[in-house]
Design goal:
Layout lengths: L4 E2 L20 H8 L7 E2 L1 H12 L3 H15 L7 H10 L1 E2 L24 E2 H9 L2 E4 L5 E6 H15 L7 H6 L2 H8 L8 E3 H10 L4 H4 L10
Antiparallel strand pairs: 1-4, 2-3, 5-6, 6-7
Helix pairs in contact: 2-3
Length: about 220
Amino acid sequence: MSDQRIATAPGAAPAGQLPVSPNNPCPFLRALVANGYVGGHVVPLSRLSEMIGLASGETGSEQKEVRRKAWMVAVIANGLGPLRVFKSATSGAVLDELRNGPLDKHGGGSRILDAEANVHEGQIERLASFGKDCKDPAGGIEIGLTAKEIEAFMADNIKRDGDAARWYFPILMKGEWPVLLKILGKGEGEARYLSVAEVRTLFVERRLPERITARLPKPAAGR
């Protein structure tokens, strides 16, 4: 398995995109920032939770629940102290200061994106090795991970991290790949899967699938 690095120098951006700070380690948020859906610095939690709720495709009470959970994660993303949580709740999350925060596993997890915002192709290949052939509802077959394969992938990430893993890493992981499956997944029920090709696009090109962006409002002017 190759571990060729796909260089994305800090501050660089693909054509037509805004630059994203390497201190924003979340691939989903990086795509939102790069394409102008949210700002790259301070973002009100109401705006952030709205984007995540809309992207999920849920409606009614189900979307409200998605927004509530997103708000609860975002309010502690920059720190757990009372003053920091209060500032996040009233002013917003600081997306370019998420690294080294409470949600940062410091090299634990998938290792697809490093601390300098470089994407490691070999780690995407490793993700794919946990997948299987999945039937795309739009037609064709592609490599993907259902909830079962994602659980195996996350468990192996913990095992790989060895003594450096912390007791709370599995809890943090529940808010990462399973959430991506919920938002980006294709299919329904136990057959719902996360496309490895779309994961690669998300990390490398900082782009969301069109079926997801169709649910979102137009990006802010001036991007």
